[in-house]
C-alpha cells in the first residue's frame, strides 16, 4: 500500500500559459553547449580543445576535485568554443553537431545483475554521475559520499512547470531501470502527486524503491520537502537527490548502452504564442524568435519562481536540469489607473488585499516580473511558515544566515534545505529579500567552514 503524506501549508499560483499536453517541433541551432554552472559545486576542468572531434558520450570537462566525475557531450561533432568569463571561469563548452550522430557505446547492462559499485562505475564512465545532487548543501554529489537514501521527486508543481507524467509516457521501462539501478546503491523514495496514476502505478517488482504519495499544495513537489517528511537529514548524514529526467538518462544508458540526453520540456507562459511541449537535447540552442508574442518579455530558463532570467530572449541554451522554458511579461509597459486604489480583479494576492480572491483558486493570472516594491527591513510576521511545509523555522534560519551564525544555522535545519525550498517564501515576502540567494550563500558558507 502506498504511503500518503498530507501537507497543509503551501500555495498554488495558477498562471496563464500552461503548456498543452501535445508535442511539437521547435527550432534548434546546430551548436550545443554544456554549461558547468548547471552543476552546482563542481569545479570544471576542460578536457577537450577547440577543433577536437567528440562522440555523444565523450567527456567535455571533469570535476577538478573528483577527476573521475566527467560530464559528457550530448552530441557528436566538433568542439567549436570553450567559452570563458572573468578569471578564466569556464562558462560553456560548445560543440557543433554532426549531421549524422555517432554514439560512444558503453554496452547494454542488466541492472538487476549489477551491484551498487558497478552502477556507480557505469554512471561515472558515461559522464552521467554529475546529474546526481545531494543534501546537505544542495550541490552535485561525488563518488566518495555514501547516501543513507536516494530521493526522486516526480511531482512538479511550481507555476508553469512541465508535467513529468506526460514526459514519462512510453519511457516507463527506462524509468524503472534507472530506479532499479539507483536502488542498488541505497533505498530509493519516489515522490508523486495524488493525481499521478502512472507513477503511482509503476511496476517496480523487487526493486529497492518505495513510491510515496504527497497530497498538498506547492511546494509538495520539492525534493527537500519530501526529504523533510520521509527521512530528514541530520549533521553528518547525506542523501542523494535525482530529478526524474536524470533517472530516464540512467535507464537509457543501461538499456541501450548509449548516452541519450533528450528531455521533454514545456514551452510555457503568457508570452508564448502556443504553449506546448517539445523534445530537446540538453544544451540545445533553442530559437524562440517565432515562439514569443509581441511586447516586453522576460524569458526564463526554468519556472518563474526558481528559474534563471536569460539575457537573450531569442536564442537560449537548454540547461542540464531544466524541464521548462517560460516567458512572462516584464511589466515595463504596465500603466495602472489609480494604482492600488482600484479593486484589481486581475491581480494575484496571497492576502485579501485585492478583490480577486472572490474568484477562488481556479482563476488564472498573468503575473509580470515586477517586484512591486524595494527591499526593506525583515518583518517577523510568520509569512514564510504559511508556504513552507517543513519542520523548520524559516524566518529564524534566514536571520541566522544573514548574521553568518553557523551554529544557529545548523540548529535551525540548514542541512535539509535547498534554495528552491524558499522560492514561495520569497514570492510572498513583504520585505522583498532575495531568499534563494541568501540560502545559497549560507549553504556555500557552511560547506566551506565544515569541509
Instruction: Indicate the radius of gyration in whole angstroms.
Output: 22 Å
Strand order of the largest sheet: 1-13-12-11-14-9-10
Shape: globular
Distance between the termini: 41 Å
Q: Count of helical segments?
A: 11
- Mean pLDDT across residues: 94
Largest sheet: 7 strands, mixed
Give the low-confidence spans.
none
Q: What proportion of the residues form beta strands (DSSP E)?
A: 15-25%
Roughly how much helix do the residues carry, as a percent range? 10-25%
How many beta strands in the DSSP annotation?
21
> Which structural class matches the secondary elements?
alpha+beta
What's the topology here?
Elements: E1 3-6, E2 28-34, E3 44-46, E4 53-54, E5 59-63, E6 66-72, E7 77-84, E8 90-97, H1 116-125, E9 133-135, E10 139-140, E11 149-153, H2 164-168, H3 172-183, E12 188-193, H4 197-200, E13 209-215, H5 223-230, E14 239-241, H6 244-256, E15 262-268, E16 276-281, E17 284-287, E18 297-301, E19 308-309, E20 315-317, E21 324-329, H7 383-387, H8 394-402, H9 406-411, H10 423-428, H11 435-450
Parallel strand pairs: 1-13, 11-12, 11-14, 12-13, 15-21
Antiparallel strand pairs: 2-8, 2-17, 3-5, 4-7, 5-6, 7-8, 9-10, 9-14, 15-16, 17-20, 18-19, 18-21
Helix pairs in contact: 3-6
Amino acid at each position: 500500500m502506498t504511503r500518503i503524506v498530507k501537507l497543509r501549508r503551501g500555495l498554488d499560483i495558477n498562471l496563464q500559459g500552461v503548456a498543452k499536453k501535445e508535442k511539437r517541433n521547435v527550432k534548434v541551432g546546430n551548436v550545443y553547449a554544456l554549461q558547468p554552472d548547471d552543476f552546482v559545486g563542481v569545479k570544471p576542468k576542460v578536457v577537450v580543445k577547440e577543433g577536437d572531434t567528440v562522440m555523444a558520450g565523450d567527456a567535455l570537462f571533469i570535476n577538478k576535485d573528483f577527476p573521475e566525475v566527467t560530464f559528457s557531450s550530448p552530441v557528436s561533432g566538433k568542439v567549436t568554443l570553450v567559452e570563458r568569463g572573468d578569471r578564466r571561469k569556464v562558462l560553456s563548452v560548445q560543440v557543433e553537431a554532426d549531421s549524422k550522430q555517432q554514439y560512444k557505446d558503453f554496452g547494454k547492462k542488466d541492472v538487476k545483475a549489477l551491484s551498487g559499485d558497478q552502477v556507480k562505475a557505469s554512471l561515472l564512465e558515461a559522464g552521467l554521475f554529475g546529474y546526481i545532487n545531494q543534501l546537505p548543501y544542495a550541490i552535485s554529489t561525488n563518488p566518495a559520499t555514501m547516501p543513507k537514501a536516494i530521493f526522486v521527486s516526480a511531482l512538479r508543481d511550481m507555476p508553469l512547470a512541465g508535467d513529468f507524467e506526460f514526459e514519462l509516457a512510453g519511457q516507463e521501462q527506462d524509468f524503472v531501470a534507472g530506479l532499479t539501478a539507483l536502488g542498488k546503491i541505497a533505498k530509493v523514495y519516489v515522490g508523486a502527486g495524488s493525481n499521478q496514476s502512472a507513477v503511482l502505478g509503476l511496476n517496480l517488482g523487487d526493486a529497492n524503491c518505495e513510491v510515496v504519495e504527497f497530497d498538498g499544495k506547492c511546494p509538495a513537489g520539492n525534493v527537500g520537502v519530501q526529504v523533510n517528511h520521509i527521512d530528514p537529514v541530520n549533521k553528518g548524514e547525506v542523501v542523494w537527490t535525482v530529478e526524474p529526467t536524470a533517472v530516464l538518462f540512467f535507464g537509457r544508458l543501461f538499456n541501450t548502452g548509449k548516452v541519450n540526453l533528450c528531455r521533454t520540456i514545456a514551452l510555457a507562459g503568457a508570452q508564448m504564442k502556443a504553449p506546448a511541449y517539445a523534445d530537446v537535447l540538453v544544451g540545445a540552442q533553442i530559437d524562440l524568435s517565432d515562439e514569443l508574442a509581441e511586447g516586453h518579455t522576460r524569458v526564463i530558463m526554468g519556472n518563474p519562481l526558481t528559474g534563471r532570467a536569460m539575457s537573450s530572449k531569442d536564442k537560449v541554451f537548454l540547461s542540464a536540469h531544466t524541464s521548462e522554458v517560460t516567458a512572462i511579461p516584464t511589466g515595463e509597459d504596465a500603466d495602472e489607473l489609480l494604482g492600488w486604489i482600484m479593486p484589481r480583479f486581475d491581480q494575484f494576492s496571497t492576502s485579501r488585499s485585492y478583490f480577486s480572491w472572490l474568484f477562488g483558486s481556479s482563476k488564472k493570472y498573468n503575473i509580470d516580473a515586477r517586484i512591486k516594491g524595494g527591499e526593506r527591513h525583515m518583518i517577523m510576521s510568520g509569512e514564510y511558515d504559511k508556504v513552507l511545509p517543513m519542520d523548520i523555522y524559516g524566518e529564524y534560519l534566514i536571520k541566522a544566515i544573514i548574521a553568518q551564525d553557523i551554529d544557529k544555522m545548523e540548529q535551525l535545519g540548514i542541512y535539509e534545505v535547498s534554495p528552491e525550498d524558499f522560492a514561495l517564501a520569497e514570492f510572498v515576502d513583504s520585505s522583498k529579500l532575495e531568499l534563494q540567494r541568501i540560502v545559497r550563500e549560507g549553504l556555500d558558507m557552511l560547506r566551506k567552514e565544515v569541509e
